[in-house]
Write a structure and sequence with these properties.
The chain has 14 helices and no strands. The chain is mainly α. It is elongated and about 65 Å long. The N terminus is likely disordered.
Length: 262
């Protein structure tokens, strides 16, 4: 009885329902990642328009399911859940102001036109790619993976296990310093987005939720109390990241530190 009131999809159906590969492909062709440009209103508008137009196409009339489908799509767009949740939260927090933004509206219209062309003429969507190229949107160095590799290389060189980093305030500060500046180089200004991206990067580094929680707790404790070793490590990490980006100099400060400690 009243079957027409039941949602058309189960929550499990929504996991991979919305297409995000089209967005990723356009970004890839433009040499960018979403982390580079998540504060660009035109791009946010395009993503919103592209995802929402698909919920209409699939007749997802249930508001809760529509939001869930979009949330799951955000997770697939970004590299980790923390970043996805942060961007989505920041987006909805500023939603009313966003809708008044002309760039956002133009981006959403571009996505709507792309979806229509795809469905009617089988034309590959390219409005996002064209916008990025025509407006000469340049990439901010996406250093999360590269920096994690650089840190791990230094630990291997020094014969240090990742777990030991939590027991050394200077080393922990160094890692946070590199990640901190890597996020700043992306142009992130929203604090919620910033700290969620930092948490995601730390979790990717330690590969352990308990160690991540411990590291984040130490970060807040040490920055609040201005722990001398931790602050010194952060300064060194930031400086080496800046040299890594600006002068293409591989960082070795962490390895040298551990060699000197032996």
């Amino acid at each position: 009885m009243f079957d027409f009131l039941k949602p058309k999809f189960t929550d499990a159906d929504l996991t991979n329902l919305l297409d995000v590969d089209t967005i990723k492909k356009q970004l890839h062709n433009a040499g960018l990642t979403l982390e580079n440009i998540i504060e660009n209103y035109w791009v946010l508008g395009y993503i919103y328009g592209y995802l929402v137009s698909q919920t209409y196409y699939y007749h997802i009339d249930n508001t809760k399911q529509s939001k869930l489908a979009i949330s799951l799509a955000f997770i697939r767009l970004f590299r980790n859940k923390n970043t996805a949740y942060a961007v989505e939260a920041a987006f909805y927090d500023s939603f009313d102001n966003t809708l008044d933004n002309k760039d956002f509206i133009r981006g959403a219209e571009g996505a709507k036109n792309d979806r229509a062309s795809l469905l009617l003429h089988k034309t590959n969507p390219d409005s996002l790619y064209k916008y990025l190229r025509e407006n000469n949107i340049k990439p901010i160095y996406d250093g999360s993976i590269g920096i994690q590799q650089q840190i791990l290389i230094q630990l291997v060189m020094a014969g240090i296990n990742v777990k030991l980093v939590l027991k050394d305030n200077w080393a922990l500060g160094y890692i946070f310093g590199m990640i901190d500046l890597a996020i700043q180089f992306r142009g992130i200004t929203d604090q919620t987005t910033f700290f969620c991206m930092m948490t995601g990067a730390i979790e990717d580094f330690f590969k352990d939720k308990n160690m991540t929680k411990q590291a984040i707790k130490l970060y807040f404790d040490f920055t609040e109390n201005e722990n001398k070793d931790f602050v010194g490590g952060m300064k060194a990490g930031r400086n080496e990241y800046a040299s890594f980006i600006n002068d293409k100099e591989d960082p070795f400060g962490l390895a040298v530190y551990f060699f000197n400690e032996k």
